[in-house]
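Weekly sync, protein design subgroup
Attendees: M.S., D.O., the rotation student, P.L. (late)

Item 1: inverse folding check
M.S. brought a backbone from last month's batch and wanted to see whether the design step gives back something sensible before we order anything. D.O. pointed out we never logged the input encoding, so this time it goes straight into the notes. C-alpha cells as presented (143 positions):
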C-alpha cells in the first residue's frame, strides 16, 4: 500500500464496524459483543479522533485524545492495521493529534505507552515521566 494513498484526518464520526475491526486487530475488545454500539459515544466523548483511511474510505488506523479542551490532554487507542504498520501511519496520527491539541492551546499532552513502544513515541517528542506511575482503578475490593 502506498502511503500517499492514505489520508489522516480528525473526524467527528466513522463507520463503527471499521473502528471495532481496528481495536480487535490490536487485541482489544475481543470479549465485547456490543462494541459497535459503543463507537458513536467513544467519538462523541473524545476531544479529537484521528482516522487514517484509504481512497475507498477504509480505516487503516486511528487514535484519539481525551481532554477538557483547555489544560491537559491524553492520547490513547492508537492503532494501525497490522498489514499497514511500518509505513509512518501511526506517526502521522500522533502528529495530527498533537497538532490539534496545540492549536487549541493545550501543551500538556501525555499517553501511556504499551511495553516496548517507547521507541516509537520518543522520536515524536514523548519522554518517560520520571517518578510518575500510571495507575488504574480496580474497585473497592482492592483496599
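Designed sequence read out in the meeting:
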Amino acid at each position: 500500500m502506498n502511503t500517499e494513498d492514505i489520508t489522516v484526518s480528525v473526524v467527528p464520526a466513522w463507520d463503527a464496524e471499521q473502528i471495532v475491526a481496528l481495536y480487535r486487530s490490536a487485541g482489544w475488545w475481543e470479549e465485547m459483543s456490543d462494541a459497535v454500539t459503543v463507537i458513536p459515544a467513544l467519538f462523541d466523548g473524545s476531544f479529537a479522533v484521528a482516522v487514517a483511511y484509504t481512497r475507498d474510505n477504509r480505516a487503516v488506523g486511528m487514535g484519539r485524545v481525551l481532554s477538557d479542551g483547555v489544560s491537559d490532554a491524553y492520547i490513547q487507542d492508537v492503532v494501525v492495521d497490522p498489514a499497514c504498520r511500518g509505513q509512518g501511519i501511526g506517526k502521522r496520527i500522533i502528529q495530527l493529534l498533537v497538532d490539534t491539541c496545540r492549536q487549541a492551546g493545550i501543551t500538556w499532552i501525555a499517553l501511556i505507552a504499551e511495553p516496548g513502544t517507547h521507541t516509537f513515541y520518543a522520536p515524536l517528542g514523548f519522554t518517560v515521566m520520571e517518578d510518575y506511575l500510571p495507575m488504574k482503578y480496580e474497585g473497592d475490593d482492592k483496599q
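Discussion: The mean pLDDT is 92. The helical segments are 16-25, 35-44, 89-103, 118-121.
Action: P.L. to compare against the previous round before Friday.
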